[in-house]
Every structure is written in C-alpha cells, then in structure tokens.
Design brief:
Length: about 110
C-alpha cells in the first residue's frame, strides 16, 4: 500500500507530464519546474534559474493562460511567480480535468504565436 507521500509524488508526476505534453503538442514554449508537490510554469524558451531570468518570460502569455484555465474551471495561482501545489484532496479526476483544460488552452495560445 502506498503512503501519502508516494501518492502525492505520483499525482504531481501525472500533472507535470500532462502539462508538458499539452504545451509540446501545441508548440507553446514553456519551462516547467517541480520540487516535490510544488510546480511552476514559465512561458519562455530559456532556462529560468533566478528572479532575473524569470522576469524575461512572457508574463502576458501567462496571464492569458491563467484566465483561460479559470474559464475552463481550473483555478491556478494568478502569477507566474507563484508556485502551484497538489495535495491529497486532488484526485485523479481533478488532474485529468486540469490536463484536458490545459490542452485546450495551450492549443489556443499556440495559434496566437
């Protein structure tokens, strides 16, 4: 039987892979970073290693991503300078719905590039 931390790791891994796949399929340049159950996304084709490199990412595109995800029923942190978290309250159906919404939003963003 998996303990809570193993379950959280698997949940976060599923979310991370799904979001990366959504952006890759849509041709949207993103950088994903994860530490345990914390995760963040930057709309950039360059590595983000500190605040200065984070400021170079496309915050306007992140704002469109945030708004579009919210309209799909997924409430994310409103700033790309904040982290996302998963918890034991997030079930597989929540993760799948988030990935599905991200696919739609990323395709929309990809058409605007």
């Amino acid at each position: 039987k998996k303990n809570i931390y193993e379950k959280l790791e698997l949940t976060m891994q599923q979310l991370e892979e799904g979001l990366k796949d959504a952006s890759r399929k849509a041709g949207v340049k993103t950088r994903f970073y994860r530490a345990g159950t914390m995760f963040c996304t930057y709309f950039s084709d360059k590595e983000v290693t500190d605040y200065n490199s984070a400021k170079l990412s496309d915050t306007a595109k992140f704002a469109r991503f945030f708004s579009s995800m919210l309209s799909q029923g997924v409430n994310l942190a409103p700033s790309q300078f904040e982290a996302l978290f998963v918890s034991s309250a997030h079930k597989e159906e929540h993760i799948e719905r988030t990935i599905e919404a991200a696919g739609k939003v990323m395709r929309k963003l990809g058409r605007k590039e």
